[in-house]
Amino acid sequence: xxxxxxxxxxxxxxxxxxxxxxxxxxxxxxxxxxxxxxxxxxxxxxxxxxxxxxxxxxxxxxxxxxxxxxxxxxxxxxxxxxxxxxxxxxxxxxxxxxxxxxxxxxxxxxxxxxxxxxxxxxxxxxxxxxxxxxxxxxxxxxxxxxxxxxxxxxxxxxxxxxxxxxxxxxxxxx
Length: 174
What we know:
single chain, about 170 residues, mainly alpha, Ferritin
């Protein structure tokens, strides 16, 4: 049984993950409209990843025999000043999610909820990767803001896709 304080915060985190999903869809659509298919694909993939994170959390609550409550989400930002702004928003979002994941882990530890602590470890690793990925992308997009093809080439070269991680938590509905 998961600690009640952890369960309450995890329910909120499900909403945070779905909010991140929506923001990444909005970013992907922006790049799609600019005919930047590689940037669009990268952010469509990021959106799916955030949705998957939410569904992992749903499955954890189900496995812990806890009530699942899906919160509403904020509307995403759909208007961007230039090609740099969406990546800055994405990096800020990943840093915010990292803080949320760390806070959830702290709750699990403070409550001596060892199963929930173990569950959160995968997300900590994932956030390190996501922040690094968006930091690198921001550097490239900032440097090449007027050269869309150069950005697209970098994404094509660097974004090799991720294989299936056998250590990832179970995903609800899969």
